[in-house]
Amino acid sequence: MQSAEFVVSLSSPSTEVLAVRYETIEVPGSPWPDDYENQSATAGSDFIHTNGLLTFNPGEISKTISVQVIGDEIHEYNEGFVVRLIQASSAPLDRSQARGVILNDDILEITINDVSILEGDNGTTVATFTISLSRPTQQYLAGSWSTSDSSARSGSNNLGNGGYIDFNPQPGKTNVLLPISVYGDKVIADDETFLVNLSVFYGTDVQVSKSGTCTVINDDFFLKTESSSAEEITFRLEGALGATHVIEYSTNMIDWVKVSTNTLFPDRVLHFATDNKKQGFYRASLQQ
């Protein structure tokens, strides 16, 4: 615990003994969530209620009142309480109360994760980002999100632009979900990315660590035979770079047998032993 120290002073020394009682009191907080300096501290959870009697002997002109402040690890508002002087003897009270403010010293970090999704062939697919808070908060936090183009472009590859977001999770939770729709198509292309940026305009002692990256995995490709022999068949796959492909073989295009599962290498060429299958069909699909 730490102490908030309040100094009670006389305007001039006295030749007789003076006494004054004091007490701590809670004060109503501001109803406005963005009034960070005027929220109410609660006795028992934020500070220790105290009261007592100060005695000034002849010649003394100051005394100190110590109020114990209770620490925690909760991200909250600055909170206030009041020390009030009452029942002064033999001297009028010039200023009878003073305000103490407990400053929040718990920094809240907001992070957003990276996501990867298959783009699909049509319509939209939802990329769901998770926005996480590093600790519980009692503040009202609000801000905005916006997308920025990388290789994927807003309007043609995703429905993002930006909007308002309430960062306050449900009670007992420390994360908020942000869904952004991604357009599907049948265009063979490399994987594409876009960024999601966060900003906070309601809240104090908040840090946003980084942007979130969405990787839209292209799932459009075709299989091309490069060469074939009794021992080996070589395929070139165009599109879906970096995805995992399943290669299957069939003699009747009805019953398919998996030949191999392989990650597509940068040269986009895969080699498979034919096991003397001189006639038949091969197909490739993405491993989900």
Task: Considering the chains and any ligands shown, give keywords for the structure.
288 residues; mainly beta; Immunoglobulin-like; 3 domains; 0% helix
Map the helices and strands.
Layout: E1 2-9, E2 18-26, E3 39-40, E4 51-56, E5 62-69, E6 79-86, E7 97-102, E8 108-112, E9 115-118, E10 124-133, E11 142-149, E12 162-166, E13 175-183, E14 192-202, E15 206-208, E16 212-217, E17 222-228, E18 232-238, E19 244-250, E20 257-263, E21 269-273, E22 281-286
Parallel strand pairs: 3-6, 8-15, 9-16
Antiparallel strand pairs: 1-5, 2-4, 2-6, 6-7, 8-10, 10-13, 11-12, 11-14, 14-16, 17-18, 18-21, 19-20, 19-22
Descriptive report:
The chain is mostly beta strands. The chain has 3 domains: 2-102, CalX-beta domain (Immunoglobulin-like); 112-183 and 196-216, Immunoglobulin-like (Sandwich); 222-286, Sandwich (Immunoglobulin-like). It is built from no helices and 22 strands. The chain has strands at residues 2-9, 18-26, 39-40, 51-56, 62-69, 79-86, 97-102, 108-112, 115-118, 124-133, 142-149, 162-166, 175-183, 192-202, 206-208, 212-217, 222-228, 232-238, 244-250, 257-263, 269-273, 281-286. The strands form 6 sheets. Strands 2, 3, 4, 6 and 7 form a 5-stranded mixed beta sheet that branches. Strands 9-16-14-11-12 form a 5-stranded mixed beta sheet, with no helix packed on it. It has a 4-stranded mixed beta sheet with strand order 13-10-8-15, with no helix packed on it. β17 and β18 form a beta hairpin. Residues 263-267 have low confidence and may be disordered.
